[in-house]
Amino acid sequence: MAAFVALYLVTSISLQLANSSGTIILLASMGASSVLLFALPNSPLAKPWVFAAGHLIPASIGLLCSHLFTDFALMAAVTIAAVLFAMYIFECMHPPGGATALVPVIAAADQHLLGIEFLLVPVALNVAVMLLVALILQKFWLKRGLQAAPTKYDPVHLHHDASPLKRLGLQPEDLINALNSFDTVVDISEQDLERLYSEAQLHAYQRKSSTIRCHDIMSRDLITVAPDSPTALAWQLLRKHKISMLPVTDAENRLLGVVSTVDFLKNLQVPHYWGLLRHFHQLLLKQNHKLQHKRHVAEIMVKSISVVHEDEHISTLVPMMSDQGLHHIPVLNAEQKLVGIVTQSDLIAGLFKSKLC
Q: Deepest in the core among 155, 195, 200, 351, taking most CB within 10 A?
C-alpha cells in the first residue's frame, strides 16, 4: 500500500509537470527504489541521503557522458563505471541509481540529447516526491517496522549506562570497525547486525548448555488473587508471604494481570517522603480499612504482562530480566493457563546449574 501511494503520486506529478522523453523511463528506477524504501526500510541502501544522492549524482554523470561520447557502448560503460565510483566515494550506494544514469544515455542513442533541466524535472522532482512520501509513511504508518537507533541510555533504570547485556561482549564500536573493514558495501545496518549477533549467541548458548527449561526452575505453589478481591487482601498476602508480586487469575486459572507493591503507590499523590510513610502506616495498621475494602484488585492490577511458556529455554529469561528490568515472570502452559512464576533467584540458580552440568 505504501508503494502504491508513492508510485501513484510520483507518476501523476511527473506526467503533469514533465514532458521529456526520459520521464517514462525514469519511472522504472523509481519503482526499483520503492522496493528498498518500503520493503527494506532498515537497509543502508534505503537511507534518505543514499536515496537522494543515489539518483541525483548518477543522473548528473549520465547526462555528462551523453554529451561527451558518441559511441553508445562506450557511453553506457563509462557512465556505469563512473556511477559506481561516485557512489562508493560519496557513500550513496543505491542500485536503482544505475538505471537513472542510463536514462540520458538511452535518450542520446535515439538522437535526443537531454538538457540540464533533466536534473530538475523529472529527476529532482521524482526524488523529492518519493522521499517526502516515504518519510511521512514511515513515520506515521511503517514506524513499527523500523528499529530505533541504539542508545546507551537505559530506559528501565533511568541512567546512562548501557543495558546489562550490552556492557560485555560485542559493542557498537566493534560493529562499526567490522563494517568499515570490508572493501565493499555490506547491505546490513549496525542495528540489524547487532540483533543477529545477539540471536546467534542465544542459539549457541542453547545448543551448548544443558536443556534446562522454565518449568524446571519455576515456582509452582503460587499465591494468587481474583480480580474482584479487595486490595486490602492483596496487600496482606504480599506482606504475609514476603513477596512483591501477585498473579491475578480467573476461575479457570487464566492469567488476567499482576498486582505488585508498586501498584499500591503509583497512583498516589504523595508530594514528599513523609506522605509516603503515612500511607504505609495506614495500610499496615488498617486505619483505612473500609476504603481499601471498597477497591478491587482489578482497579490497580497491570494487564500488559511479559510471559514465557513452560517449555522455553531459560536463556529466554535473561534479556527480559536483565534489560527489561523484570523481577518476576509468569509461566504459562500450552493451554495459556498459569502454571508457575520464575524469579531472578530462580534464574540465577538455573544458570549456575547449567554450568555444573
A: 351
